[in-house]
Automatic annotation (TrEMBL):
<dbReference type="InterPro" id="IPR010971">
    <property type="entry name" value="UbiH/COQ6"/>
</dbReference>
<dbReference type="GO" id="GO:0071949">
    <property type="term" value="F:FAD binding"/>
</dbReference>
<protein>
    <submittedName>
        <fullName>2-octaprenyl-6-methoxyphenol hydroxylase</fullName>
    </submittedName>
</protein>
<dbReference type="GO" id="GO:0008681">
    <property type="term" value="F:2-octaprenyl-6-methoxyphenol hydroxylase activity"/>
</dbReference>
<comment type="pathway">
    <text>Cofactor biosynthesis; ubiquinone biosynthesis.</text>
</comment>
<keyword id="KW-0503">Monooxygenase</keyword>
<dbReference type="InterPro" id="IPR051205">
    <property type="entry name" value="UbiH/COQ6_monooxygenase"/>
</dbReference>
<dbReference type="Pfam" id="PF01494">
    <property type="entry name" value="FAD_binding_3"/>
</dbReference>
<dbReference type="InterPro" id="IPR036188">
    <property type="entry name" value="FAD/NAD-bd_sf"/>
</dbReference>
<dbReference type="InterPro" id="IPR002938">
    <property type="entry name" value="FAD-bd"/>
</dbReference>
<dbReference type="GO" id="GO:0006744">
    <property type="term" value="P:ubiquinone biosynthetic process"/>
</dbReference>
<keyword id="KW-0285">Flavoprotein</keyword>
<keyword id="KW-0560">Oxidoreductase</keyword>
<comment type="similarity">
    <text>Belongs to the UbiH/COQ6 family.</text>
</comment>
<feature type="domain" description="FAD-binding">
    <location>
        <begin position="5"/>
        <end position="327"/>
    </location>
</feature>
<keyword id="KW-0274">FAD</keyword>
């Protein structure tokens, strides 16, 4: 193979692609890294000048994700705008069963965190600008891919020009609607839940006090995640409301006051009155898993590899653990003088991540199937399950570790593999 233009080309510069680029630069010596992002880079304020918007979208970060960002040297910056989840309260409307998780019971300051997506991106870009081995191409589009004996040729379009770009490994990180995945002919297995997620930030009369609320209703689950900012600090939460298409149309047709009243009727009065309902977004809910996540010189990561129902807040956390598994495989490649696109290297990533991927998808999907419908026969079973989780320490410990993104086991950290505890 002639000299490649770059060692690793990451197609997609969102949270997954940017995190992967930074992790490779800081954990794997020697590789040249290129990120191709379809959207132009906007001028971003310096972190000290950042002002969060009330309507900003946010991401739930599990405790395991905090540990990963700490290892990458990013957590000190991220934590400045991240609200800790100190407690999780899980209940079902109309039944007495409830499960409560508290960080102090697991000797941790938090079970997880909620961070503004724009702030996460700002922290990542601030760090990426200081990494000389990372080349950022934006706006740029990665087109058709031609496999080589060792590596791939891709068509790269930038600033009206098209050129052939050669890399030893192509990482597909362009999201759930991945055009590059489709161009590669990689199929996707989809399960449509027949529901929509309505996303908005809300303000409540009472403070959230670091509590995340998971509420299962006859129309589907809803979650309220604590936010740090807002017009009344400590009173704002990120709402994820699962609705049928008909119910979504009803809610979208309501004014702010009536939306608050509808939400009040379903959630209840634990946080007092809902007094503000911010700008909303919605999208259809689908469980999607790519039929392949690796090929010679090609790896899929993030939503291009799998997209989950948001019920358990595990989508980005699973993706992040997958990124670290890929980084560890690249470290293996450097140590054994292998190409980062060697199928032995990428199969190692797939093997290390597969158990976590399968278990996390199964965990999220099972919650949706058990709690997401209104079948009367499942009511007593769901209620007994919540009561059992709250009363049986071993079951509660298992559920808490899943929520914290640490897996179900409590096995000790392996000194030879810094990330193994994140996917066990």
């Amino acid at each position: 193979m002639q000299q490649p233009d770059t060692d690793i080309l990451i197609a997609g510069g969102g949270l997954a692609g940017a995190t992967l680029a930074l992790a490779i630069a800081r954990r794997v010596p020697g590789y040249r890294i290129t990120v191709a992002e379809a959207f132009p880079l906007a001028e971003a304020p310096a972190p000290e000048d950042y002002q969060p918007s009330y309507d900003a979208r946010s991401t739930a970060l599990a405790w395991g994700s905090r540990k990963i960002f700490e290892d990458l040297g990013l957590w000190a910056a991220i934590s400045a705008q991240a609200a800790p989840i100190e407690r999780i309260h899980v209940s079902e409307k109309g039944r007495f069963g409830v499960t409560r998780l508290a960080a102090r019971d697991h000797h941790q300051p938090a079970l997880g965190y909620v961070a503004d997506n724009r702030w996460l991106g700002l922290c990542l870009m601030d760090a990426l600008r200081r990494e000389p081995r990372i080349e950022w191409l934006a706006p740029a589009e990665v087109g058709p891919v031609r496999p080589l004996e060792a590596g791939v040729d891709v068509t790269l379009r930038q600033n009206g020009e098209t050129r052939c770009f050669r890399t030893r490994c192509l990482v597909v990180a362009d999201g759930g609607r991945s055009g590059l995945r489709e161009a590669l002919g990689i199929g996707v297995h989809r399960h449509e839940y027949g529901q929509y997620a309505l996303i908005a930030n809300v303000t409540t009369e009472r403070p959230h006090e670091g509590t995340a609320w998971e509420r299962f209703t006859e129309r589907g689950p809803m979650a309220l995640l604590p936010l740090q900012g807002g017009p009344r600090p400590g009173h704002s939460s990120a709402l994820v409301w699962t609705l049928s298409p008909e119910a979504l149309d009803e809610v979208l047709g309501l004014g702010e006051r009536d939306r608050c009243a509808r939400l009040q009727a379903i959630f209840g009065w634990r946080l007092g009155r809902f007094i503000r309902f911010g700008e909303s977004h919605h999208y259809p809910l689908t469980l999607a898993t790519a039929d392949e996540t690796v090929r010679p010189s090609v790896a899929l990561v993030g939503n291009a590899a799998h997209a989950l129902h948001p019920v358990a807040g595990q989508g980005f956390n699973l993706a992040l653990r997958g990124l670290m598994a890929l980084v560890e495989s690249f470290r293996f490649a450097r140590a054994h003088d292998l190409s980062p696109g060697d199928l032995t290297v990428l199969a190692r990533y797939q093997q290390q991540h597969e158990a976590d991927r399968r278990q996390t998808i199964g965990f999220s999907d099972s919650l949706v199937r058990l709690f997401g419908g209104d079948l009367p026969a499942l009511g007593p079973l769901r209620n007994a399950g919540l009561v059992g989780l709250d009363l049986v320490p071993a079951a509660k410990h298992w559920f808490a570790r899943r929520a914290m993104g640490l897996g179900a086991t409590g096995s000790p950290r392996q000194p030879t593999d810094r990330y193994r505890e994140h996917w066990q």
